[in-house]
């Protein structure tokens, strides 16, 4: 460490960034997750008021979100990389909040598809901007897996809090609206309000804040710049090179198969558990606290361990294999309690490696190239977000069961883990660190 930074308390510096960067982005992610998956819970009661909502239409509408994501992911990420990432995130929040409220008033399959597509279009580029633009401006390469894992506990916190709240709202009829309508309307409000809170709270670069000392700003700017320069010496990517790179497309395959299993599991799991158990919507919502709580603990442990050891391949692949086991075993289970146990296993598998995974692209990419490639990976993967729910809907409508669908989703996770293990053991960041150490 350079002697001129000897007076910096690095633990305190990380804690400052947790409060002023990770925490507000955590809240954004919680709200985003609630607004994209509330349809999974609304689906338990919507059919009473919407007779046209067949399993196939529900699966297609749930997945339509990801088609909107697909078309607008890369342009949005490149815009944010060039301009102000925080203002772009605020724009995303406000527009998705408006569309979430519109779902309460849908009356036809076309409106269901349209509003879900628009919701995805509005939210498109949110996570790539966070992973590849905002966090690399604030966190060193060795900190990112831990920081992203901590932020992504938001997905599990959202499920833990959102599932029972959704279940309670579905059993109520407030303001003359059905429970599912109340759910969409009330969960749109936080996005609209937090848009303005976020703009005041977060800045996209250390130079723009007053809560860091000048010494701390200099340390972050110089160290991050040195890492980027060392990476560029290994290989400097243009935007076009990053979008056509073989390793980037391997990451696309890994995340596509992962997300197919992830969202197929998430969108159908509440309905499958309710059908199997006969529990009320409220009871199903409360029971989901257990798998999400288990996955929350596992995600923190895996993210911290990956940051500490620098190993990423097996941290991700091991989780994929675990999630695949949970899904493949699901069709053979008839006990509600045992089913909940395997839901816990699957949830740990599909959620826990997220933080480690999203630190992978920035181990060899930076700047606009990282933003574009991360958006490409996420947009291709989100086609899996369409495929997973739709595939289960079609299989259920034609066979009366989701068993075949869960076997297919489990196979996708096994493929994801296997391809993850084909990535190089040493990344450009690892090579860059070795070069920096040798130069010193």
TrEMBL record:
Residue ranges annotated for the Major facilitator superfamily (MFS) profile domain, each copy included: 21-428
Superkingdom of source: Bacteria
Chief location category: membrane
Subcellular compartments: Cell membrane
Gene Ontology molecular function: transmembrane transporter activity
Keyword set, alphabetical order: Membrane, Transmembrane, Transmembrane helix, Transport
InterPro entries hit by this protein: MFS (IPR011701), MFS_dom (IPR020846), MFS_trans_sf (IPR036259)
PROSITE patterns (alphabetical): MFS (PS50850)
One protein family per Pfam: MFS_1
Residues that span the membrane, as ranges: 21-37, 57-81, 88-107, 113-135, 147-170, 182-202, 248-269, 281-302, 314-333, 339-357, 364-384, 404-423
Matching PANTHER family: PERMEASE-RELATED (PTHR43791), SUGAR TRANSPORTER (PTHR43791:SF100)
Name of the protein in question: Sugar phosphate permease
């Amino acid at each position: 460490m350079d002697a001129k930074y000897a007076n910096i308390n690095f633990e305190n510096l990380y804690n400052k960034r947790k409060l002023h960067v990770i925490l507000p982005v955590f809240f954004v992610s919680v709200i985003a997750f609630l607004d994209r998956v509330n349809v999974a819970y609304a689906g338990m009661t919507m059919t009473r008021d919407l007779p046209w909502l067949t399993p196939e239409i529900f699966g297609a509408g749930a997945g339509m979100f990801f088609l909107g994501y697909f078309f607008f992911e890369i342009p949005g990420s490149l815009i944010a990389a060039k301009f102000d990432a925080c203002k772009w995130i605020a724009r995303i929040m406000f527009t998705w909040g408006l569309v979430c409220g519109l779902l309460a008033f849908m009356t036809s399959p076309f409106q269901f598809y349209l509003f879900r597509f628009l919701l995805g279009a509005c939210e498109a580029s949110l996570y790539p901007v966070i992973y590849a633009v905002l966090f690399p401006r604030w966190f060193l390469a060795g900190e990112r897996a831990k920081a992203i894992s901590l932020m992504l506990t938001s997905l599990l916190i959202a499920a833990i809090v959102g599932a029972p709240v959704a279940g309670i709202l579905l059993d109520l009829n407030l303001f003359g609206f059905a429970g599912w309508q109340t759910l969409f309307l009330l969960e749109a409000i936080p996005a609209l309000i937090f848009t303005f809170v976020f703009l005041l709270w977060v800045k996209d670069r250390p130079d723009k804040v007053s809560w860091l000392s000048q010494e701390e700003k200099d340390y972050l700017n110089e160290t991050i710049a040195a890492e980027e320069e060392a990476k560029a010496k290994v290989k400097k990517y243009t935007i076009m090179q990053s979008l056509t790179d073989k390793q980037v497309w391997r990451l696309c395959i890994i995340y596509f198969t992962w997300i197919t299993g992830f969202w197929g599991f998430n969108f159908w799991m509440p309905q499958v558990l309710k059908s199997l158990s006969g529990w009320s919507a409220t009871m199903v919502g409360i029971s989901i606290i257990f798998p999400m709580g288990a996955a929350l603990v596992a995600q923190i442990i895996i993210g911290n361990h990956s940051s500490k050891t620098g190993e990423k391949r097996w941290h991700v692949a091991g989780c994929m294999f675990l999630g695949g086991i949970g899904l493949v075993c699901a069709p053979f289970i008839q006990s509600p309690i045992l089913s909940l146990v395997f839901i816990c296993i699957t949830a740990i598998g599909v959620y826990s490696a997220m933080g480690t995974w999203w630190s992978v692209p920035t181990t060899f990419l930076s700047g606009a190239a990282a933003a574009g490639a991360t958006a490409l990976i996420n947009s291709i993967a989100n086609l899996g977000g369409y495929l997973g729910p739709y595939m289960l809907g079609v299989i259920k409508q034609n066979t009366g069961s989701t068993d075949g669908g869960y076997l297919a989703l489990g196979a996708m996770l096994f493929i994801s883990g296997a391809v993850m293990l084909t990535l190089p053991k040493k990344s450009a960041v690892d090579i860059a660190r070795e070069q920096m150490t040798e130069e010193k």
